[in-house]
Amino acid sequence: GAVVHWFRTDLRMEDNSGLHKASKLGVPVIALYVHSPQDLEAHVVAPAKTDFMIRSLGELKKELAEKNIPLWVETVEKRKDIPKRITELVKQWNANVLFANMEYEVDELRRDTKLIKLGMENDIAVNIVHDVCAVPPGELVTKSTKTPFTVFSPWFRAYCFELFENPALLNLYPSPADNPPSFATEKQKLFTSPLPSSPLDIEKISTLITLFPAGASEANSRLKSFLETKGKAYQDTRNTPSIDGTSSLSPYFAAGCLSSRTAIHHAKASNNGRLSGGGGGIDCWISEVGWRDFYKHVIAGFPHVCMNTPFKPLYTQLPWLPDPLPHFTAWRTGLTGYPFIDAAMRHLSFSHFMPNRLRMVTATFLCKDLHIDWRLGEAHFSSLLIDGDFSANNGGWSWCASVGVDAQPYFRIFNPMDQGRKWDKEGEYIRRWVPELKDVVGDEIHWPSDNIREKMGYPKAIVDHKVESKIAVEAYKAVAKVG
Ligand code: FAD
């Protein structure tokens, strides 16, 4: 016999609970990865993210080979065929047990339910286990109503309390558990399957390899170096885009090259054993990793957010712009005439990444200044981000659009010029990404005169922030009143 571990967004060997459990069974382990072009398209996965997953898979394959674990990569065009094809493969390999780590998005849960059912019909034990959050979703509920939290701060207190009371939650899974028996070399050769090819061209791949080398060992060294060098100052530097003060670990979290458990385990160790309450940079960082897990608890607790419906369904009634294309195009291509916004949108197109502060400012601008449905923005981010992650992206967008859990109040609207003045005081970030403005000096970088715009070939502002933000407040107010 043999046991199969189906890798999804958990592309690492260390601290992988499904793989660990599989490797304890005392039979050879086969690693499986399924590539479904239709599924990637349906979920608007960025080619940059797919490329990152494929590169990470390459690293994983090498690490697995060192433990004599073969990796089989199967391409299944249509996503509805995935459970059936997996069942066939498992039977073909004479295995009767399969492990995978749970993904909490509705489509993925439905897919896994189908697989469990097919498994039962075919004598295959399908084990879908908790792994992606340090505290599994469902474990934390409010004291008063015993329902999932909808506010971050009390959720985070409960999360830290749980990690403190139950320190085993932060124990890392060694990998593989006990060196599982391996197949004879001859049999291993039967598992040769090529990696999927990258959807990107060579030039793009080389840009992204430089920015984000793939794989779990890169993730671990970034984590270590972040905690040793930038961690302490994180709270003060994280919002300033010209300072590289954050961990840049999000693509690794999203592909599962790194788990929250590992991240918090090491952060705690370099924070004198503390998770929170001390107010330092690493405390702050742990709470940001907490936001990642929080949004996963939210999608597990309130699955309607996975189905194109805001957490507060009332806000589906907001009167979004009926013909969004011209303004949406200006926003997407970084031609709104708002320098801080345009810099960030061009940064996103080039690097497939954007710092958190800019994600908040550009997203709020789309919903509140341009009155464009936040779901269009959510899809656009997803189509480009190398760290695209449904729960974080959906959570971030619905926070900015004031329609999500613990969202930004609708009347608090970022002023894009002031945000630039505050977080990019000298305009370094703007000059880097908006070359038309590179010779503009002083405060004018944040709001160039008509004269300069014309001379430098930089567009006039497509809307007036003062006017549009008032219109947005009135629109939200009207809907809130009805509710
Ligand atoms: P750090 O500041 O070093 O934080 C460490 C880790 O904590 C991150 O890698 C990430 O996993 C997690 N994290 C930090 N902030 C948040 C947050 N606000 N919400 C959830 N998790 C967080 N993050 C994604 O990983 N994928 C997305 O698709 C995504 N879309 C977003 C869309 C919008 C509109 C907004 C406002 C935020 C979005 N974020 C998303 C969250 C955040 O912007 C990124 O995680 C962060 O910028 C990544 O940089 P970093 O790894 O250097 O983060």
TrEMBL record:
Source species of the chain: Pyronema omphalodes (strain CBS 100304)
Residues of the full protein shown: 128 to 610 of 637
GO MF annotations, alphabetized: deoxyribodipyrimidine photo-lyase activity; DNA binding; FAD binding
The keyword ATP-binding is assigned to this record: no
UniProt superkingdom: Eukaryota
One GO CC term, this protein: nucleus
Protein name: Similar to Deoxyribodipyrimidine photo-lyase acc. no. P27526
Family from the record: Belongs to the DNA photolyase class-1 family.
Cofactor: FAD
